[in-house]
Structures are given as structure tokens and as C-alpha cells.
Amino acid sequence: MASPPRRIVPEPSEDTRRVAKEIRNLRPTHGNADLAGTLTTVAGLLRSSPGKFPAKEVYFITDMQKSGWVAQRPGDVAGAINAFKQVNAKAIFVDVGQDEVGNIAVTSLEMLDPVATTAGEVRLQATLFNYNLKDDANPEVSVKLSIGRARSERGEEPMTLREVATTMVKARRGQQTPVTFTYRFPKPGDYVVQVGAGRDALEVDDTRTALIRVNNTFPILLVNGKQAPELFDQSTGWLRFALFPFEEGERVPSSITARPKVVTTADFERMDPEQFAKFDAVCLCDVPSVSAKSVERLEAHVRRGGAVVISLGDKVVDFKAINDSLYKDGKGILPVELVKKEVATPPYALQLQMARDADRLDPLKLFQVDAARERLLQPLFSTFVQTKPAKAVQGELPRTILAFAPYTPPGRPAPMRVKPPVGGAAMIEWRPPLPGKSEPRESGEQMPSGRGRVVLITTTVNSDWGGWPASPAFPPLMQETLYYAASARLRERALTVGEPIELHLGAQTAKAMATVDCPRDGGEADDGPRQVPIQALGDGSVMRFADTDLSGVYRVSLGVEKREYLYAVNVPATSEDQQASESNLARTNREELEKTYPEWDIQVVADLANVAHATPTGVESSEVYYAPQGPPIARVLLLVMLALLLIEVVLAWRFGHYSSTGGLPEDGPPIKSGVWQRAHLGRAVGAVRRTRRRRVHPLARRIHRGFPGVHAGGVAVRRRAGDGRAAADARREQPLAAGVHELLLRRQGRPVAGRHAARDRGPGHRVRVLERGQRGQRPLPRPDPVAAGRDDRADARRLPAAGCACISSVRAGRTW
Fold this sequence. Notes:
Blueprint: H1 16-24, H2 35-47, E1 56-62, H3 66-69, H4 78-86, E2 89-95, E3 104-111, E4 122-130, E5 140-149, E6 162-170, E7 176-183, E8 189-196, E9 207-214, E10 218-224, H5 237-243, E11 258-264, H6 265-269, H7 273-276, E12 281-285, H8 292-303, E13 307-311, H9 319-327, E14 338-343, E15 349-354, H10 370-377, E16 380-381, E17 383-387, E18 399-407, E19 424-430, E20 454-457, H11 474-485, H12 487-490, E21 495-496, E22 501-506, E23 513-517, E24 530-537, E25 540-545, E26 552-558, E27 565-570, H13 590-596, E28 602-605, H14 630-655, H15 675-689, H16 698-706, E29 710-711, E30 714-715, H17 724-747, E31 756-757, E32 770-771, H18 785-795, H19 799-811
Parallel strand pairs: 1-2, 2-28, 10-11, 10-12, 12-13, 13-20, 21-27
Antiparallel strand pairs: 3-4, 4-7, 5-6, 5-8, 8-9, 14-17, 15-16, 15-18, 18-19, 19-20, 22-25, 23-24, 23-26, 24-25, 26-27, 29-30, 31-32
Helix pairs in contact: 2-4, 5-11, 15-17, 15-18, 15-19, 16-19
């Protein structure tokens, strides 16, 4: 039931061992439950289940937590519940939870100061919430603050959390309890800050972690689009003075961290990427156009958590060019599309307006006091640029911070022919998703929260279109706006479970591998460090890691580089009252579930023996169903077949030489021969000689392959002492057998071996005879062709029978 839900066994399976193995390998995630997504996934599995199962049961092994099962909008799961009814499926809840279990969770951790420096102490505030159900459950809780610094150079130790402060607080039941710490960071760098509140039944929400970057300065790049002799006539003059009201050489208080640097548009286009990466915020003041290269650089800057502030003016004339380069139909960094310039005709003017409750959010928190709010809304304006209404892009909707409204000075009625100006947005901010081909993203995957913000100011930040730069509210508003836009770098940073990790690097690390060390949950499913590829992106590279199902600190390192990149991941807190949070362990029951989902057939049991199983439609419950036995039987038959194949191979290896019919090697011993076997060979050879078309009789081929006395150079026959007939037969058979062998070799296109080749004995003698002397034997005599031909003709009538007898005697294992 994780968010998003995942299929562990993707299709219906009858292999209970495999399903049990997958369940044993599961590990709990630290995110919220997705009830609607889970029931939709289960409904899909039910619809794809084979039709041979007339009744189906779905088991939910759960602690019956109310926040996970009682939906705020039951209509979102009505379609999935209807699927249970359509396929005759029964839902069985196996209750494994406990009643009246309390829990105290750390729900937030933030830095109260706008930026962390080494000049003074930094205030850190954590918030606790007591979820205990008993009225007298107001315990005192020990809250600890632990801090560790990330390794940034060679020779430094890896990050290790050390406890630096402890305090006792009384956490009241059902209320939020703030806890404040102060700490002075010893030197710049990235620090992990963690607040823990003891141990209870649910340990994953007992700690809250954040990452804070400590810097003594806040470098800001101001791009001046309007050149003028006077400083305050330039587009960046008033903004530079509002951020840093000191001359060169003056003593600067430690509380002033902004360090603005003013450059021209030409210098901005020629700036080196390494120099550009040193700035945390970039302000484009009345810049008429931006090149494609600079647009890519600004997009990469926002991906790395940097801020971009865009203000307009008289130099910005071509709105279409700005929209094409920066807006890109919602795919760029500009939050809205520019339309046209709106000018107020006197006596009308334009005045700032604040939306209701806008001062409860940054960057307007400083203006909650009535006097501060009045100073903010007092200045008047003459011109601004109208924009189209904001629209959401990949779930990210631009937010309007301030707006313009028509203003008529009191006591000065406007003429009838003068129309009042049309109001519109004055300051808009958002976090651009920046989708692209080089940055693939899975469907439903969240956008990283570590990205910077883009702020659009539809008027000037000098006195060309209004008098607000001289207002006492202008400096704090600009400072808070830049701090808020660059909060991804300056303030505490933390991800929620399920959000992907993004690490943006230089182009030199593209196609390399990064090592991600994930938190451990202590289970058997823990894996070691993960290897993640680094992909090229624009003029840099990016490492993306989406498997953040566990809360804790994730460490990223690159090859032999000693620097650590740390990311804090926390469990989610879903609502302000914390009642819909997973930290709230309040339980539900069958009655509440049936009241919420009246069409759902539900059982709640604590013991599986009490389950009332589903009855197939149209079949009595007493009918017996037999489990399929096909797979076990097939498995046994397959093993038997494999065993028979193995036995056959062993028997062939052990007894195969008794049926061998191959010839002896060339240098083998002479073979004994009988009189009647030699006669059969002579008849077969005679039939071959009489073949007019020089075709070899098939029986002669079989005799040649089965007669072990035939060698490449002739036939070796040991004569028997005192047997004159055997000697005469040998003299006639030897050259003929050699001729058969030669004829077979020539028909196969193979070379004829032998030291001597016989000459043709006339047109009727079609067989070449090879003669060869063997060691220990006298040379073979030349045969009489007339006598040999007569004998062959006389025996031709008995050739088939003789040939068969010869082959059978050879294959029977007899020796010649």
C-alpha cells in the first residue's frame, strides 16, 4: 500500500512458495499509504484473474490504522470497490494491530534565521506532536539536538552525528510543542542537523533531519540592462543599494550577508560557467533579450537550487522573444506569459495589493504588522506589464505574491473620458519543473524539492515606473524575496520519503558512476551502496536517484573524490492538525468501514481460522474443490525423463564398442580372414566392375564401411599355413578391394593415398588397383584380369545374399 503502490507478484500465481518468498523479502516503507491507488491496483489484479476461479478473496494484513483506511473522500475509491462486487471478491482484513498505542512525533525542523553564518548563533526550532489517546498522557520528553559536518576536503573524517544539546519539554496531548535550540557553527560547510524525541512504538517519526549550508556571504549577480551616467538611473542602482548599502572599505555588520555584483548584459553573456556557478541568485533587471546559451545556464542554475529574479522595464519591448526564450509554453523558467504594457492615465495610478493571508507565507512574513503592511502598500506606480493567468505545469502552479489595483487619489475625480487601468499580477513566484528530453522522468514521479525558485516582477526595480524604490519597505522586501527564492541553498533542506534526489555537477563528471549509501532499516533486505550513472544535461551533468523509500541521511560520493554530498529524507506530515498523518496510530473497526463503504463486503478477523470463505456464484458451499495436480505430476515426469536420458548416455559409453563397425587404422595389425568371407567380397567387387555408368553399388559402400580389412593402400590378409586355396583367394581379392576403396574416394572427391598406382588393364577393367607393400609382407602380386572377370560373372547372381552375409558377420563381432 505504499505511495505509489507496487505489484510484488505482477500476475495471478498458483505457486504458493514463490508468493511466500516475495512476502518474506518485503520491507516496510516510511511513506504514507495510498488507499485509492492500492484498491485500483487490486481491482486490476482481480479483473485479470483466470475465470476458472469462481470466487476470490483479497486479504489485507493491516494494523487497521484509521488514517490509512478511512478516506477523506470515499468517492475516490468507489470505482475500485465496485470491481470487488463485479468479480465476486470478498475483502478480508487480518487485524495485527494493538489498541491504545500512543506516539510522540517530531513533525517539523526549521531555521528561524534567514541564513546560517559563522558570525553568530543560529536559531533552530523543532515541533513535537503528542498523539497519545489517553487524557492523562502528557509526559515529559527528552529532546536532543545532534549535528554533523559533511566531509569537503581530503583528510577530513566522514560525517558523524554528535549530540550537542539536550532539553526536557512537556508534550501535551493533541497539541504541538515547539522546542528551540541555538547553535554556533564553527566553520562554513554543509551540516546535518537532527532532532530526536526519545523512543516509542513508532520509531521512524521520532527524529527529524535537515541539511543546512553555512555561508558567511550571499553572492548575488545583478545584470544591468539599462546603462545610465547616474547610478540610480540604472536598472540595478536602487536594488544594489537595498541589498548592500555600504561603500567600498566600510565596515560591514556580520548580519549583512548579501554581496551583490553588477555586470552588463555583454559581460553576462561572456561569463564563464565556473564563475557563474559561484552565485546563489541572479537578477535580470530590464534585460531586453537573453541568448539560448544563457537560457540553458539559467535553467541549470535553477536545477541546482539557485534563484532567478526577473524585473521588467522600458528596454523590454519584444515580449514574444522573451516568451519564446524564457516561458516556452510552460517549459521554461518564466512563471507566466507576458502580454502587453499597461499604463495608468492620470489621475489614475496603480497600487499594490496583498492577497488574504499572504503575509503568513514567505516572503511577506515581515509585513504582518499593520504599520509594516501599510508602508508596503503605500507606493504608487504608473506602468506594469500584463500577463496571462497562471496555469499549472506538471502540478506546479505559480503563486501571486502581490498584485496591482487601480487607485484614484482622494478629492480628485477622474474625467469621464479617462478609463481606469486594468489591474494584474505584480510579483509571481514558482518552482519550474523544467522538463526536457535529456532529463527523463517516470510517470507520477515527484519533482525534486531542492530546486530554486523564479520570481517575476512585472514592473521596474528603479524609479522609472514607480516610486517604490524610495519606500522604506523596498529594501526588506527585496532582501526577503531573494532569501526566499534561494532558500533551497540558504535555508534548511530536506526531502520527503518518495521524492527523488538530484545532484547537479559539472560536465566533466558525465557518464561517470556515483555511489549512493542509503539508510539501513536493520532487515535482511538491506542492500549495500548503490551505483548510479551520471547523465549529461546541458552544459553540466546530473545524478538522479529515486529509491528514497526510507527516511534518514543519504550519502553520495563520486569515485575517488573525497567530498560527501548529503541529503536528508523525512517521513511525511500530511496536514496541519496531523490527524491524517501516519504518525496518528488511532484505529478503525468493521462498523466504521462498513459505514464509510456500504457496498463493500468486508470481514475483520484476528485469526485466519475465523474467516468465512467466499462461496462461488450458483454453487452450494458444501461442494468440494480440488486443487490442481498438474504441475506436481509434470515435475515428476520431467525428472524421470531426464534420468532415462542420463542412463542411456552411460550405457552407450559403457557398451557401445561391441557394435563398432569402423575400419582399423592404417598401421593396425593384419586381420584374420576366412575363405567364404573373401568369396563374398569378390562377388560384390565384380558387380561394381560391370557397372557401365561408373556408379557404385550401394551394397559395395556398405561392404567397404563394414569390412575392417580394407585399408587406404590395399588389404592385408594373413595367410594360413598349408592352405593353398586361401593364398590364391588372397591374391585375387586384395587388388579388387583396394580398387573399391579407390573408387569410393574418387567419387567423394578425396585424394587417393598410396605409394604405387596400378595401370588400367584395358577398357573393360574400370577399377584402378593400388598396390602397397606392408612391413613383414611380400609385395602383392598382380591379378589375372581374365580369371578375375570370369569368377566375378559367375558369382554375380548370388551378390545380394553374399553381401548381406558379409555385413552381418562383420557387425556380429567376428574376426577375420
